Amino acid sequence: MIEFKILGIPSPKQSARFYAKNIGGKTMIKSYQKKEVVEKERNIAFDVRSQLPEGFIPYDCPLSFEVLFVFPLLSSMKKSVRQAIEDSVIVYKPTKPDLQDNLMKGLSDSMNGIVFVDDSRICKVSSQKIYGLIPRTEVIIKPL
Question: Which among 109, 112, 103 is positioned nearest to 138, based on CA atoms?
Fold first, then answer.
């Protein structure tokens, strides 16, 4: 089992962008990823590498992937809700970004080749979005 924390506000991975380019009379469709998205993945990869034990070999087996995304409190939150969060009550975040498509995708893509050989090794997933005092992403990965 391996676990780590990535400090900062969790952010979704945006879809690739596409554009058309004329080459020799033919229209080619090209795709690219925004610079901010690429940098965010690199930063996550750096944080993850720094928390792995010396000589860690990426998993090449079926894996369980548990993730907790903690978002900052909203300025519009009632004082009673803020107090509940300070008292360790779990308050779920039912708004965007969506959990599986965008949050999980960026996180698992950034760990490819570092924690596991490929994110196709992930066979079991458990994830949550909540509000908390310290924005972060907590990850636990276990071989099955």
Answer: 103
Reduced 3-state DSSP string for the chain: CEEEEEECCCCCCCCCEEEEEEECCEEEEEEECCHHHHHHHHHHHHHHHHHCCCCCCCECCCEEEEEEEEECCCCCCCHHHHHHHHCCCCCECCCCCCHHHHHHHHHHHHHECCCECCHHHEEEEEEEEEECCCCEEEEEEEEC
pTM here is 0.83
Are 65 and 125 a contacting pair, CB within 8 Å? yes
Confidence band of 31 (pLDDT split at 50, 70, 90)? confident
Average pLDDT for 22-37: 78
Cβ atoms of 62 and 143 closer than 8 Å: yes
Average pLDDT over residues 38-59: 91
Contacts with 31 (C-beta within 8 Å, 6 or more apart), sequence order: 16, 17, 18
Both tokens of 102, joined, read 């965008």
| Size (the chain), residues | 144
Cβ atoms 75, 19 nearer than 8 A: no
